[in-house]
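Cont'd.
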Amino acid sequence: GAVVSQHPSWVICKSGTSVKIECRSLDFQATTMFWYRQFPKQSLMLMATSNEGSKATYEQGVEKDKFLINHASLTLSTLTVTSAHPEDSSFYICSARDNIQSTQYFGPGTRLLVL
Amino acid sequence: AQSVTQLGSHVSVSEGALVLLRCNYSSSVPPYLFWYVQYPNQGLQLLLKYTTGATLVKGINGFEAEFKKSETSFHLTKPSAHMSDAAEYFCAVSDITGNQFYFGTGTSLTVIP
């Protein structure tokens, strides 16, 4: 149980285009999901907290207009990187919080490369 | 505020040797504690967690960790390292809601054959 999926796992796009990443909790409902960014050889950096049916809460320094988050259902949150630039290239990981166990379960990550 | 310190960004052990990865935390209230493992180009997999109850927690793949409140530690151990244990390990702390996770900087474990 407690499986979180992400799609796509790999994406390459041209500079200026937008990319959508999906995060799904497959066998539990998640009121709250999280989006992280990870740079090579570093720990995870929390970008935003996504709450079902309401606006996401962004961490300081994260541009909300650039990283659009939608959490329309209890099993799906999406992160859209708008007008992507090469500096947005990174490994993006989502997690979903199990409401009962207060534990975050992580997706397998999405590697974004912007050319 | 909570914080997590993982001593040693790189740890090397011989195959079959004891694995010890250190984690200390600072928290004003009893936290929930977690160890996650990350293999290259993958997400984080939960190894084990402590919330309440028994302070010695057993996880997957033969790992265990002990919550020591007096030392504010949650070190991860495994009696005998296997080649497949080579990965990045993250210690994390959260409050009881699980909404705010604080991660350590990670420890890269290398297993030498």
